[in-house]
Amino acid sequence: MPPIRLLINGSERRINVPADEKLLTVLREELDLTGTKYGCGEGQCGACTVLVDGEPVRSCRAAIATVEGKQITTIEGLASQGRLHPVQQAFLDHEAFQCAYCTSGMVMSAVALLARQPNPTDPQILRAMNGNVCRCGTYPRILAAVRGAADAMRGRTAKTSREKSTREDGSTVQPIRSHERQEHIRA
Questions:
Q1: Which residues partner with 63 through β-bridges?
Q2: What pLDDT sits at residue 183?
C-alpha cells in the first residue's frame, strides 16, 4: 500500500493507512489532531466537520483517499501567529458553547460560510449551520457569534452576548445574563 499524501493545516504529511480509512480516524489516531470530534459517525451531527479545499466536510464519512492532495484545515489550523481566528474569538466572546463538544465543527462551518459570504443574513447563517447539532442548545449564542465574527472580519466592532443586539428587522434582543441562565436552568 503506497503512502497517502495529505496537506493538513499547511503541512504535507504522508501516512500508510487503507484508502477507505475515514479522515476523522486518521486525524485523531494517526496525526494526534484531536480537536475534531467523533459525534454520531454518520455525518449527521457536524462535530467532525473540517474544511477540504475550503468546503465543510464531515470527516467521519470521508474516506482518506477522497481527500488525498487536497487542502485540509482542522480547528488546530485556524489560529495564526498565536492569535485565534475571528470565528474562534467570537465563539469565546459570545459564550457560544456550553460543553463545547460541538464547537470545533460549528466553528469550521462558520469559517466556510464567512469565506463565501462575508456579510451573511440570519437565514444564510442558519442554512450554513444546519446539520451542526448542539445538544446544549446554545443556538442563539452561536448565531450571535457568527454575526460577531462577520463584523470582526469586516473590521466592525462586534457586540458580545452580554450586550443588546439588533436584528435585521430592527427588533432588539436582550442578552441572557449568567445568573438568568442559571435561574432558567433551575426552573
A1: 22
A2: 37
Measuring CA to CA, which residue among 64, 53, 57, 58 is closest to residue 20? 64
- Provide the grid cell at 145: 457569534
Please give the share of the chain, as a percent, with pLDDT higher than 70.
83
What sign does the CA torsion over 131, 137, 140, 146 have?
A: negative
How far CA 159 is from CA of 89, 117, 150, in Å, comes to: 12, 20, 11
CATH number for position 100: 1.10.150.120
Nearest to 18 by CA among 54, 81, 87, 64: 64
Q: At 125, list the grid cell.
A: 447563517
Same domain, 92 and 182: yes
Assign 3-class secondary structure to 73-125: ECHHHCCECCECCHHHHHHHHCCCCCCCCCHHHHHHHHHHHHHHCCCCCHHHH
Q: Answer yes or no: do 93 and 175 share one domain.
A: yes
Q: How far apart are CA 166 and CA 84, in angstroms?
A: 26
Q: Do strands 71-73 and 4-8 pair parallel, antiparallel, or not at all (unpaired)?
A: parallel
Task: Return all residues near 110 (Cβ < 8 A) that are at least 6 apart.
Answer: 87, 125, 128, 129, 145, 146, 149
Q: Mind listing the pLDDT tens digit for each residue in 42-63?
A: 999 999 999 999 999 999 999 9
The answer, yes or no, to whether residue 169 has pLDDT greater than 90, is no
Contact call for residues 102 and 131 (beta carbons, < 8 A): no
